Amino acid sequence: MQHQHIDWAIDYIEFAAPDLDAVKKFYGTVFDWKFQDWGEEYTSFSDGHVDGGFRKGTSSSGTGPLVILYTSDLGGTEARVRAAGAPITTEIFSFPGGRRFHFHDPAGNELAVWSDK
User: Fold this and answer.
1) What is 73-101 written as a DSSP string?
2) Is residue 2, in this structure, part of any structural domain at all?
3) Which pTM does this prediction carry?
4) Quick one: which of 68, 67, 92 has its CA closest to 78?
5) pLDDT tens-digit map of 60-90
6) Residue 79 counted as domain residue
7) Domain that holds residue 57
């Protein structure tokens, strides 16, 4: 599940799913997506072009998938987001493979920015 990461481009998309086995079976059977489990609460996927993941849980009414942008400079990008007036909703945290933070855009959409550095 490797693809080229491009600064500030949409790089990953994350969905909520109450039953990870069911979504893996569905997308694997119908669209031939490949999966990698990261414990019992998360699985990542690749469709050959876009990477993404399913976190165990349900979406709140009115929310959609989490769009994740890539950056090679997480701290610098966070500073740019803050300087533009966007509220940080989740401070920088680490996960297997990198670090990320979340913010709200002016329309109230939640997005995340991640880095493998």
Assistant:
1) -HHHHHHHHHHTTPPEEEEEEEETTEEEE
2) no
3) 0.74
4) 92
5) 555 688 999 999 999 999 999 999 999 999 9
6) yes
7) 12-63
